[in-house]
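Morning. Coffee machine broken again, so started the prediction first thing and wrote up yesterday's gels while waiting. Chain of 131 residues, entered below exactly as on the submission form.
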Amino acid sequence: MTRVNKHAPHRTEHAEQAAVIDWRNAMISQWPELKYLHAIPNGGKRDVVTAVNLKREGVTRGVPDLSWPLARHMYHGLYLELKVHPNVPSDEQTDFLNWLSSQGYCALVCYSAEEAIEALKWYYEFDGLPF
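Came back before lunch.
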C-alpha cells in the first residue's frame, strides 16, 4: 500500500510546467535552441467570454502543453504533455499525442518537471529511444 504524506505540498501541473520553463531559461546560454521551447496555453479555467474568444482563435482540446520545434534525427520536433499523479491524459490528449507520433514528432507524457527536463535533455542529445 502506498502511503500519502498529508503534509506534503500539493503539486500542480502549473508548478511543474513553470519549473521546466525556469530550467529552460537557466539553460539557454548552453543550449540556445531552448529559446524555441514554448507553452501552448490550451488548458486552465477561464471565464466564458475568454473561453469563447480563444476557441474562435483556434484553441483546440487535447493539444500538449509544451512544444519544441527542433528537429532531431527522425523527429520533426518534441511535444510534452505534463501531468501530476494521479492525473492521466484525457482521451483528446491521447488522440492528439498519438497523431503527433504518427506524423513524425516525438510526443511524450511527463509526470514531473524532473521527468520533463530529462526528456528535453534526451531529445537534445538524442541517442536512441526515450528512457
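The chain has one domain: 13-124. Going to sketch it on the whiteboard this afternoon.
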